[in-house]
Amino acid sequence: MPSPLFFTGCSGISLVADHHGSATGTPVLLLHGGGQTRHSWLGTAQRLAQAGYRVISVDARGHGDSAWADDGDYSADTMVGDLRCIIEQLDAAPILVGASMGGLTSMVAVGEGHTPSALALVLVDIAPRTEASGVARIITFMSANPQGFATLEEVRDAIAAYNPNRPPPKDTSGLKKNLRLGDDGRYRWHWDPRFLDYAPTKNKGETLTSIERRLAAAAKVKIPTLLVRGANSDVVSHEGAQELKVLIPHAKIVDISGAGHMIAGDRNDVFAETILSFIRDNL
Q1: How many domains is the chain built from?
Q2: Are residues 59 and 149 both part of a single domain?
Q3: Rg (CA), the chain
Q4: Is the pLDDT of residue 183 over 50?
């Protein structure tokens, strides 16, 4: 079982995390995507912990059990600030593994020099340039059902409609960790709805950060970098991955067959081994 950890983000916000594995091994920070929670990394965290790493999966501000921002600030600058604060509270430089939003935050933090130190960067189905249609599909899913769900079965069906290639869970009780139960008896996603105020409003596939900022940050990343792309992803195209390779010439790119944007959930077995192989080869 993981043990709880608590960090203080920028402006003093409380951030909740799970610690798996060694207390002294090289730290691996797992940063989830928008609308997810630290629990999305469970399988990956367990495998990395088995390999001897100190694995820390963090709920971003406004997500999961971390505090909601009083001022509703979920901007890129603030997310980067939270990451900087988390790293400063560690006793060793971490490996950053970020999915979607978490990957963008990590890439910008590293490229702009806002992290005190990081050993390596793993981007999980995210690149500077993303596909507008795929990003729009995510935002549509997140924006749907503002009144919540009456049952866990309704939640299961909504997830299955978004990701029809992943078999729905037979036991729906596991979905509760990604939901909050309101006083009205309805389930809602476990994140602050104001987070969507920072959703993309242009047709460039932008979210949280502008394409210009992403490109500039990527070009300055010097640490070992891995892009893990879902072969069926509608968010990162082959062209988007190749552009990343131009910006970060030393980056390694691996496509995971049978996986879409949610790689850790679709093919965690292959995903975790890909990360371990990259770490062993580069650190």
Answers
A1: 2
A2: no
A3: 17
A4: yes
